[in-house]
Amino acid sequence: MNSDIILNIVRFILLVLAQVLVFxxxxxxxxxxxxxxxxxxxxxxxxxxxxxxxxxxxxxxxxFVDLFSDTGGVNAAASVCIAYIRPVVLKFAFGNIYEYQIIxxxxxxxxxxxxxxxxxxLIHHLILFGLEIFSxxxxxSILKNTLFSSVFTVFLCLLIIPLLRKAKS
Length: 169
Description:
Elements: H1 3-21, H2 39-43, H3 51-69, H4 74-94, H5 96-99, H6 110-133, H7 139-168
Helix pairs in contact: 1-3, 3-4, 4-6, 6-7
């Protein structure tokens, strides 16, 4: 096994455990919940040849969070959706660097990194809360949960990314 595979396995396990043991119990103001497990999807190595594997891993991480959180598949659905659209968002946020497959998220300018995180997290949370609440009469609640949880998640992700990078060194 090469070191990248081991690193991704460790990241997967740590992020699932952190989500279900710590972050699922944060319920700030009754509606703000961070979902840091999606860092696995956001930081996964960018290679076009392993797309099916990546989509499967995105499903798997969402499935495990759903399994331990008793949320009925909403995390798995939201995870697969953001994994599927990730190439489009990467191209939008990083442009030519993504085209040539030379991008490494931790080495990109902070502005591009924040744009990428915000877009991906907003889409994930909108799908997650849309499926969880699943009612047009509660659209304001969906949007409120999406906005505030996204801001909190982006903030935590920006704090956690350097920790995950140092773990590799």
